[in-house]
Every structure is written in C-alpha cells, then in structure tokens.
Write a structure and sequence with these properties.
This protein is mainly alpha-helical. The chain contains two helices and no strands.
Length: 38
C-alpha cells in the first residue's frame, strides 16, 4: 500500500525486520497448532 513509507521505516528502524520475522514464525507456529487440532 505504502511501499515508500515502509522502506523509510525499514531504514530508520532495522528492528522492524526482526519483528516481521517474529510475526512470521508465530503465524507458522499457530498454523501447526491448528493442523494438530483438526
């Protein structure tokens, strides 16, 4: 939606990349849990 603003944020806050990865890992873990439940 806002690729320029996102790029700007990534330059200013490199830690946002870590947050991004953490969210991705969390979502994958949730996916695994839901698969086990079904």
């Amino acid at each position: 939606m806002y690729p320029f603003r996102l790029q700007q944020c990534n330059m200013m806050y490199p830690s946002s990349r870590i947050i991004e990865i953490t969210i991705k890992v969390s979502l994958e873990a949730l996916d695994e849990l839901t698969k086990k439940l079904h």
